[in-house]
Amino acid sequence: MRVYVPLTLSGLAAAHGAGEVGPGPLTAYAVTPGLREWYVSDDIEELEYAALNRAASASLRLIAGKPDEPRRRVVVALDVADGAAVADPDHILDAASLGEVRIAAPVALSKAAAVHVDADDAEKDVAAAAAALGAADLGDDDAQFTVDGAEDHELLWFGVQEIPGLIG
pLDDT tens digit string along 45-64? Predict the structure, then answer.
């Protein structure tokens, strides 16, 4: 099963140093039945893209909580055993938790298929989105517009062997 784990650049550096993404439990995003129903598509690529975007939003939340963190969203795509990623049955109908799964244990970085990271030119919009996140959560439409601005930036694809260049 392909899962998308939200991180920050410092989190990616820690994972690279440890050789694993963890510690567990990890919050990740995947193509779950709830995500399939919400997205209304049978195209697995579209569904995986939706899960990736959910993880990118979670990465933004991680960034917002760390003022010294570089303002670039990071998502690691990992391949885990089918039973390793479990959706929380209490949150299946919660729109904020669509596609969210838990992985009990750390996952070896060797299981990573790719790393997705914002380009340098996204930093300004990601910084603004991180600053506006609290107000957007409280229903401020202008703040939500700012948060949505970060989503206009596509995450770039990097091979696992490129991690040293990303964190260097």
Answer: 999 999 999 999 999 999 99
pLDDT digits (tens, 9 = 90+) for 10-28: 999 999 999 999 988 999 9
| 92 band by pLDDT with thresholds 50, 70 and 90 | low
Could you identify the residue written with the tokens 């885990």? 80
How far is CA 58 from each of CA 43, 96, 142, 168, rounded to the nearest angstrom?
23, 10, 20, 23
Bond into 23 cis (ω within 30): yes
Query: From residue 2, how far is each of 6, 30, 66, 131 by CA, in Å?
Result: 13, 7, 27, 31
Tokens of 20: 């694993």
